[in-house]
Design goal:
The complex is a heterotrimer. Chain A is α/β, with parallel strands linked by helices. Chain A is about 35% helix and about 20% strand. Among the domains of chain C are: about 120 residues, no CATH class; about 80 residues, no CATH class. Chain C is flat. Classes of the chains: A alpha/beta, B mainly alpha, C mainly alpha.
C-alpha cells in the first residue's frame, strides 16, 4: 500500500505573488495502470497540481507548499528535478513548444542525452519508444514539417524514452482533430495497460470517457469537489462547465430553465452573394502538391458556415483566399463581385473580417483602445467613426472596463475577445474565425460563441473548427473539407447525417450529433442538448 | 547581484536561442522592405532584439542573441561567416545586459532611459570593434573604416534600436506580470 | 518559405572533412593570410582559397547574392581607401610615391581645402586588398552551403564550448523555421486588419514605429513560448549531468592532414614574416615602370 506510484496528502500550494492558494487540501492516490482524469475550468488549479507532481514546483516556480507527495513511497521533498523526471513523465499542453530537437531522433533522445547515457544505449531506447507508439517511420524526419498529431506522438515518445512509471498529460487533446484525438487516447490507454499510471488533465471530458478512466477528479477553484468513479461524476459536475455526453445533459437540463439563444443572422434572407469561389486551385510553390483542388462555392448573406475537416485539409488556406492573403494558382475568387487579384488585402478587409486563431499573434498596442483603433485607422475611417466603432466593439465583447489596459496583460479568454473586437471595429460584412474556441474551456467558449452569434452587425459568419458540436449548435450550413476538396456542402442536418462520409473525412460523430439525429424527425433541425430537453416535454 | 547577472541556466539557454533565432528571422524578413524616403538609413528593426533580450535576460543572453543571430542570418542569406561583425553584434546585446539586474518595471521612465543609454554604448563599442577589425583584415585606414564601415553601421542601428526598444519594453512590462515564476 | 537553409549534400571535397577540422582550417587560413601584404604571397593564398571554394561544387546561382554584397562593400572600401582618404593600412604604404593623378581645390560654401593624390603604389595596394579580401571571402562564404546546420551545436561542443552554449546554438537552429512561420502568420493577421507594411507614410521615426505591429507580437509570443520550452527542458533533466551528444564526430586521417596543413600554413606564415621578414608590402618593378618612373 505504501509503494503506490503516487500518493498525495493534504497538498496546498500558493504562488509567491498571489494572495490565495492555487490548490488546497488535495488528497488522492494512483495505482499502476490506472487512468485518472482531472477536469475543471480554466484557472481551477489543474496546471498547478501537475507542476507539484513533476517537480517544476518548487524547482522552477516559487511559493508556499504544504502537505506531502510520495512517489513509490518516497517523499518528493528534497528530490532533484532529474530524479523526479525519471519517474514522472510530463507531456505539456502544446507539443510544438515541447519539441526541442530539429529532428525526431534528437527530440526523442533529448532526455537521455541530458542524463549523459551512452550513445550505444540511447539509440535502442529511442527506437523502442518510437515503436511503442508505432511511429518508427518518423525517425529521421524533421520535427518542423510533421502534423499536429505526429508532433504529439513525437513529444510523447521523448517522454517515454525516459521510461517513466507515471505519466502526466496536460490537455493532450487541445490541438488535435477528433480522429487524431481518438488515436492519442488509444495510445494513452495502451500505456496504462502496460502498467504506467496515467493522469490526464483535460476539459474534453466526453472524449476521454471513451477510454474509460478509472478515477475522476473534479477541481473547482483549487478545491477537490469530486473524486471517484465516472458514474458519480455525471451527478456532481455542472453540465454547463464541463462537457458531458449529450444524453446526460439532456436529462440534467430538464430541471433548469430553457436556454435563450436568438441568432442575429437569419438564413431566410439569402439575397446577396458576398464571396464566390470559381474553379479555385492552389499550391504554395510550383512543384509542391495541390492544397486546394477545384473549389466552387458561394458565401451568401445569411450564412452561418462551419468549415469542418481534419488537420491539414486546407481549411485555413481556403479562408485565406477570401481575403486575398493567398491568390489562387488557377481559377478566381470574387469578393462582392470583384476579383481578389485586383484588390489589396486592406480593401478586402472592408468586406471580410478575419480573426486569426491565436490572439497573441496579433495583439501589440499599449492599450486596448489603440489596439481596437488599429484596423479602422488602416482602413482610413474618420476619427468620429473610429471612436464610435471602437466603443461599439468593446461593448459587444463586454470588456469596457479594460479599455485603457494593455491587451498583453489580460487573460487568454479576454485576449481572445479583444482580438474579435479588433475585427468588429472594422465593421466588415462577413466575420471569419479560425478555431474560435481553441484554448478556452467549455463554459467560456459557449458563452463566447453565443455572444458573437447573437450580435448584430454581420451579413454572414464563417468559422473553422474541429468541434463537430460547434457546427451542430451554431451553423446553418456546413462545408466539409477533405484533402483540399469540398466533400459536402449543405444544411447541417443533410451533411452530418451521413456517418460514413464523415468518417471517411476523418470527422467523428459526437453524442450530441447522434442525439440530434434521433430527434430530427420531430425537430427538423439541430439544437443544443439543453434546448432539446425542453422541446420534447 | 553581479553573480545573478552572469547566470546561464536552462532559462538563459532557451532565451539565448530564441533571441538568436528571432534576430536572424527578423533580419531576413525585413531585408526586402524598402524605405525610400528614409534617405540612406537602412531599415534594420531586428537590431532591437539583442538590445531587448539583453535588457530583459542579461548580458550573456543578449550577447548570444546578437552574436549567434548574426551568424545564422548570414548563413541563411548565404553571406558566409564574419567573425568580427558577429562579435560586434554580440556586444550590442551584451552591454545593455549589464543593467538587466537593475530593471524593475521595464516601463518606468528610469528603466527605459537606462536601457537606451546602455544600448547606445553597446552600438558604439560593438560596431567599433567590428569596424576596427577591418583595418587588420582588409587593410583599410582609419578614416576609410569610419566612413565605409563605422558610420553606415551605427546610424541605422541607433535609429532603429532606440526607437523600438521602449516599445518592446513597454509590451514586456504587460506580460511579465502574468508569469508565475 | 522565408527561411531555407543553403546547405545540401553536394559531395564536394570539403564535406569529406570533419566540421571541426574545417573550422580550424578556416580560422588558421584567416590568421595566416592577414599576416601578409606581399602580392606574391597573397596570390598563393588566393589560389588555395578558390581551389577550396570550387571543390565545394556550389553553383554561381546560389552564391551570387553573397558575392554581390561582398563585392559592394569591397568596392566601397577600396575606392574610399585608395582615392579619397589615401591612407593605406596603418602605414603599410609608404608616403610619397609615383603620382597618377592629383586634384586639389576648395569645397564651395564651407571653404574647406581638400587634396586628392592617387599614386601607383596605392593602386598596387588596392590590388593586394582585392586578393586578400577575396581569399578570405571565398573561405568563409562557402561555409553555409556546405555545412549541415544540425552539426553546428556538436561541432562547437567538440571545439571546446561548454554544453549549455553549444545546446543554445542547437536550439536556435531548431527555432528558426518556427519563428519564420510565426512571423508570416502575424504579418497575415495584421494585413487582415488593413495593415500595409509597404505603404510609406511619414518621417523616418514614423516608418520605423510602423514595424511595431509585427515585431511586438512575434517577440512577446516567443517569450511566452520560452517559458514552456524552459519547463520542457527542465523536465527532461537538461543540464543536470554532462551531456551525451547523439551525433558523433570522429577525426579521420584526412582531418589530421587538414589540421596539420593549417598548422603549417599559420606557423610557416609567422616564421616567414617575423624570422625572415618576407611578405611585407612590396611593389613590383614593372608596375613602377608603368608609372614611368
Amino acid at each position: 500500500m505504501n509503494n503506490l506510484p503516487l500518493v498525495i496528502e493534504n497538498l496546498t500550494f500558493q504562488y509567491r505573488r498571489r494572495s490565495e492558494p492555487a490548490i488546497e487540501k488535495i488528497n488522492f492516490s494512483l495505482q499502476p495502470g490506472q487512468v485518472m482524469l482531472i477536469a475543471g475550468s480554466s484557472g481551477c488549479g489543474k496546471t498547478t497540481l501537475m507542476r507539484c507532481i513533476n517537480g517544476l514546483i518548487p524547482h522552477s516556480y516559487q511559493g508556499e507548499m504544504s502537505g506531502d507527495i510520495r512517489l513509490f513511497g518516497e517523499s518528493v521533498v528534497g528530490m532533484g528535478l532529474s530524479t523526479i523526471s525519471q519517474t514522472v513523465g510530463t507531456l505539456l499542453q502544446d507539443p510544438e513548444r515541447q519539441i526541442l530537437g530539429s529532428y525526431v531522433l534528437n527530440e526523442v533522445a533529448f532526455g537521455l542525452e541530458s542524463l549523459g547515457i551512452s550513445r550505444e544505449e540511447i539509440t535502442p531506447r529511442v527506437e523502442r519508444a518510437l515503436a511503442r507508439l508505432g511511429i518508427q517511420h518518423l525517425r529521421d524526419r524533421e520535427t518542423f514539417g510533421t502534423s499536429g498529431g505526429e508532433k504529439q506522438k513525437i513529444a510523447l515518445a521523448g517522454v517515454l524514452a525516459m521510461e517513466p512509471r507515471i505519466l502526466l498529460l496536460d490537455e493532450p487533446l487541445a490541438s488535435l482533430d477528433p480522429a487524431s484525438a481518438q488515436e492519442a487516447l488509444q495510445a494513452f490507454r495502451m500505456l496504462a495497460d502496460e502498467g504506467i499510471a496515467v493522469m490526464i488533465v483535460e476539459h474534453r471530458v466526453e472524449d476521454v470517457l471513451s477510454i474509460h478512466p478509472d478515477i475522476f477528479m473534479y477541481l473547482d477553484d483549487g478545491k477537490m469537489t469530486y473524486l471517484g468513479g465516472t458514474e458519480g461524476l455525471m451527478d456532481v459536475v455542472d453540465y454547463r462547465r464541463i462537457k458531458l455526453p449529450a444524453r446526460v445533459v439532456l436529462e440534467r437540463a430538464r430541471q433548469d430553465p430553457a436556454p435563450v439563444f436568438i441568432p442575429a443572422i437569419r438564413p431566410e434572407v439569402k439575397t446577396e452573394t458576398l464571396v464566390q469561389f470559381e474553379g479555385v486551385h492552389f499550391r504554395y510553390n510550383e512543384d509542391g502538391p495541390e492544397v486546394l483542388k477545384n473549389l466552387n462555392f458561394n458565401i451568401n448573406a445569411g450564412d452561418v458556415i462551419a468549415i469542418l475537416g481534419h488537420n491539414g485539409s486546407g481549411k485555413t488556406t481556403m479562408v485565406k483566399h477570401t481575403l486575398g492573403l493567398l491568390k489562387p494558382t488557377e481559377g478566381r475568387v470574387l469578393l462582392e463581385g470583384l476579383e481578389t487579384r485586383k484588390m489589396t488585402v486592406a480593401q478586402a478587409a472592408h468586406t471580410v473580417g478575419y480573426v486569426f486563431q491565436s490572439p497573441s499573434q496579433m495583439l501589440f498596442a499599449p492599450t486596448v483602445r489603440e489596439e481596437l483603433s488599429f484596423g479602422p485607422k488602416n482602413l482610413e475611417f474618420t476619427e468620429d467613426i473610429i471612436t464610435q466603432n471602437v466603443e461599439w466593439a468593446i461593448d459587444t465583447v463586454n470588456l469596457k472596463s479594460e479599455m485603457e489596459m494593455p491587451p498583453l496583460a489580460l487573460s487568454f479568454g479576454q485576449q481572445k475577445r479583444i482580438s474579435i473586437a479588433a475585427i468588429l471595429a472594422m465593421r466588415s460584412r462577413i466575420l471569419m474565425m479560425d478555431e474560435p474556441t481553441a484554448g478556452q474551456d467549455y463554459w467560456n467558449y459557449q458563452a463566447f460563441m453565443d455572444a458573437i452569434l447573437q450580435m448584430p452587425g454581420f451579413d454572414a459568419v464563417l468559422f473553422i473548427t474541429h468541434d463537430v458540436d460547434l457546427a451542430v449548435i451554431y451553423a446553418n450550413r456546413i462545408l466539409l473539407v477533405y484533402n483540399g476538396e469540398i466533400a459536402a456542402d449543405g444544411k447541417p442536418q443533410e451533411v452530418l447525417k451521413d456517418e460514413k462520409l464523415l468518417r471517411s473525412c476523418r470527422v467523428l460523430p459526437t453524442s450530441l450529433l447522434k442525439l440530434n439525429m434521433e430527434y430530427l424527425p420531430q425537430t427538423g433541425r439541430f439544437y443544443r442538448a439543453e434546448t432539446l430537453a425542453h422541446l420534447q416535454s | 547581484m553581479l553573480k545573478k547577472s552572469w547566470k546561464f541556466g536552462t532559462r538563459e539557454v532557451v532565451y539565448a536561442a530564441i533571441g538568436a533565432a528571432l534576430y536572424a528571422v527578423l533580419s531576413l524578413a525585413t531585408n526586402w522592405i524598402q524605405l525610400p524616403s528614409a534617405g540612406n538609413v537602412s531599415f534594420r528593426p531586428a537590431i532591437v532584439i539583442p538590445m531587448f533580450f539583453g535588457v530583459v535576460f542579461g548580458p550573456i543572453v543578449g550577447f548570444i542573441a546578437g552574436f549567434l543571430g548574426n551568424i545564422i542570418s548570414d548563413l541563411i542569406a548565404g553571406y558566409g561567416f564574419w567573425f568580427w561583425w558577429d562579435l560586434g553584434n554580440g556586444v550590442i546585446g551584451l552591454v545593455p545586459g549589464l543593467i538587466a539586474v537593475w530593471m524593475t518595471t521595464y516601463n518606468s521612465f528610469k528603466d527605459i532611459v537606462w536601457g537606451e543609454v546602455f544600448s547606445t554604448i553597446g552600438v558604439l563599442v560593438g560596431m567599433g570593434i567590428a569596424s576596427i577589425s577591418e583595418m587588420w583584415v582588409s587593410g583599410a585606414d582609419m578614416s576609410t573604416v569610419i566612413f565605409a564601415n563605422y558610420l553606415p553601421a551605427i546610424i541605422p542601428d541607433l535609429i532603429n534600436g532606440l526607437i523600438l526598444l521602449p516599445i518592446l519594453m513597454i509590451a514586456y512590462a504587460a506580460i511579465v506580470k502574468r508569469s508565475g515564476r | 518559405m522565408l527561411v531555407t537553409w543553403r546547405y545540401r549534400l553536394r559531395n564536394g571535397l570539403m564535406e569529406k572533412f570533419d566540421p571541426r577540422a574545417r573550422w580550424i582550417f578556416s580560422l588558421a587560413f584567416l590568421f595566416a593570410v592577414t599576416l601578409f601584404w606581399d602580392a606574391r604571397f597573397l596570390a598563393f593564398f588566393f589560389i588555395i582559397a578558390f581551389a577550396w571554394y570550387f571543390s565545394s561544387r556550389a553553383k554561381w546561382k546560389e552564391t551570387r547574392r553573397g558575392w554581390y554584397l561582398i563585392g559592394f562593400i569591397l568596392f566601397m572600401m577600396i575606392v574610399i581607401n585608395t582615392i579619397i582618404t589615401g591612407g593605406g593600412a596603418g602605414g603599410v604604404v609608404p608616403p610619397g610615391g609615383h603620382l597618377v593623378w592629383a586634384q586639389g581645390g576648395t569645397i564651395p560654401l564651407v571653404g574647406w581645402q581638400f587634396h586628392f593624390g592617387l599614386t601607383w603604389e596605392r593602386l598596387w595596394f588596392a590590388i593586394c586588398q582585392l586578393l586578400r579580401i577575396g581569399a578570405i571571402s571565398a573561405i568563409f562564404l562557402i561555409i553555409p552551403y556546405t555545412m549541415d546546420p544540425r552539426v553546428y551545436g556538436v561541432t562547437f561542443r567538440g571545439l571546446g564550448l561548454p554544453d549549455r552554449f553549444a545546446y543554445s546554438m542547437e536550439l536556435a537552429f531548431r527555432y528558426v523555421p518556427t519563428l519564420a512561420r510565426d512571423f508570416g502568420t502575424t504579418l497575415d493577421a495584421q494585413r487582415a486588419r488593413g495593415y500595409e507594411i509597404e505603404r510609406v507614410k511619414g518621417g523616418i521615426i514614423k516608418q520605423i514605429v510602423r514595424i511595431a505591429p509585427l515585431i511586438v507580437p512575434v517577440t512577446m509570443n516567443s517569450i511566452l513560448t520560452g517559458e514552456d520550452v524552459t519547463n520542457a527542458m527542465d523536465l527532461r533533466c537538461f543540464g543536470t549531468r554532462p551531456r551525451t551528444w547523439l551525433q558523433k564526430l570522429t577525426f579521420h586521417w584526412q582531418d589530421y592532414a587538414l589540421i596539420a596543413f593549417s598548422i603549417i600554413l599559420l606557423g610557416g606564415g609567422i616564421i616567414t614574416l617575423y624570422a625572415f621578414h618576407l611578405g611585407n608590402f612590396w611593389v613590383p618593378e614593372f608596375w613602377l615602370r608603368l608609372a614611368g618612373g
